[in-house]
Amino acid sequence: MPIFYRGAAVGTWWHKRDARKFGFTPNNPGIEATSDRLMNHIARGTVSSPYVSLTRSYSVAWSYATFASRGGLPTARRPAYVYEIEINNPCPRGLELIDPVKELGKMLPDPLETNSYQHDGLPSFLLGVVDSSMVHHLHAPILHPPPGGGTSRPALLSLQLETLIRAMRDAEILALGTIPTSCIRTRYKVY
């Protein structure tokens, strides 16, 4: 029985609304699930989507609950939460789990196409995508082959690459549909 987690940072919707009573519902359940919406949900944090983000990592959920809080860090008097969710196979009716890395893999362009998802920067470029405290790596100029002279610019970051990296960083699984209360095992306080 797979276990998933979801962080609820202080001041967020799922912090104020106890999912143990209501389940987890997407912000926009009637909207069509498309690859563009999947990428924007993960890479841009678009909340108007048909998805609910889950993680296989308690550590990721704890980090989100702790550091994404609005109005300061959680405290014992005002804790954030990490929900533990158990979803059996087959999924409850009306619920589908999606591995975003597998979904994106199906649609990535051929290596010979001009618009690749690959970047053209230094290896450290990816650190800026993974960790916002290392954003300076995103702005480092690319190197040009000799004799040089190309225009100085930062590396290219496609939406596909950003989504892949963030999905892997967060051990992310997307739920399409409502996660019923029967799947929510517990809610841990985080502070």
Architecture per CATH nomenclature, i.e. the level-2 architecture of the domain at 3-108 and 170-190? Alpha-Beta Complex
Q: Output the CATH homologous superfamily of the domain at 3-108 and 170-190.
A: Heat-Labile Enterotoxin, subunit A
Number of strands: 6
Poorly predicted runs: none
Protein structure class: alpha+beta
Widest sheet: strand order?
1-3-6
Q: Mean of residue pLDDT?
A: 93
- Note the overall shape: globular
Into which percentage range does the β-strand content fall? 15-25%
**How large is the radius of gyration?**
19 Å
What are the defining features of this structure?
191 residues; Heat-Labile Enterotoxin, Chain A; alpha+beta; single chain; 6 strands; 8 helices
Summary of the model, kept short:
This protein is an alpha+beta fold and about 190 residues long.
Describe this structure in words.
The chain is α+β, with helices and mostly antiparallel strands and 191 residues long. It has a domain at 3-108 and 170-190: Alpha-Beta Complex (Heat-Labile Enterotoxin, Chain A), CATH 3.90.210.10. The chain contains eight helices and six strands, in the order βαααβαββααααββ. The chain has a three-stranded antiparallel beta sheet with strand order 1-3-6. A three-stranded antiparallel beta sheet has the order 2-5-4. Helix 3 (35-43) packs across helix 8. The longest helix is centred in the C-terminal third of the chain and has 11 residues, at 159-169. The radius of gyration is 19 Å and the shape is globular.
